Predict the structure.
Amino acid sequence: MNQGHLINYYHLMKKLLLFIITTPILFGCRYKGIPVPDPEFNDYGAFLGRSDNDVSHFSDYKYVSLELDEFGDSNINRLINKGVNFLAYLNVGSLENYRDYYDDYESFTFKDYENWSDERWIDVSNVSWQNFIINNLAKGFKDRNVFGVYMDNVDVYSIAKEDGLDYVAFGQGLKNIIKGVSDLGFKVMINGGSEFLEDLNEQDDDIFSSIWGYHQEEVFSLITDYEHNSFGEQNKKDKEYYQQISTMMKEKGKEIFYLEYTSDDGLKQYIRDYCEAMQYHYYIANDVDLK
């Protein structure tokens, strides 16, 4: 083989090697060079909209997020004894008008919640609200023997930032709530709040020791119509941003959970392969209400 052929052969082998290395990354397949997908991480269920007290199918999961008040003690305790770890829904950043405490805290709200007509964002810097979350709502979970809390609407930090409010005070309020709930003995799983977590990371904040997990919705999928359960794919910029925050939190030793909404079989398989390769917990829903 002459020198020219050797050079061409060398460049061909480089291209082939590059293809072999990058193919698993591009397509989420199970090739050497990335972690072998682990089906063990298909162990999460999100049923925040279920309210029929039917818990029979919850035994299929290691972690289950739900509205705790909708389920009786006997059913919950039976599954806890079987190893199911329940994460009780705890809405810290907004207020729904169907809550029995709505009238007491409505004056602390400041903005309607897009796509959720029965909900408004709330000022988490208010000490009364912080105390209520910690000493009433979260403490009320103690007798139910739950594993942890699904802390929702931490994105109120970003809403405050966008609206020119004192987002630093909002951030401190969230930190107070996170620590207060963690100090009660609960594992705290943050839903969303990517910008809040990113800013905390830049400050090297010790509040991370009170956070057990990071939960993100719509990393790969996208809800395009809330009323008719229509779904699409997440845009590249937001997808990569959520992946970046996930990597940051994983490096801090946190459990990572993805909640996706899609009926597309191809996208479902991609999500499974990706999450199992990265050892992220995941749940793929086909309805917005998570029933």
Remarks:
- Residues 1-34 form one domain.
- Confidence is low (pLDDT under 50) at residues 3-37.
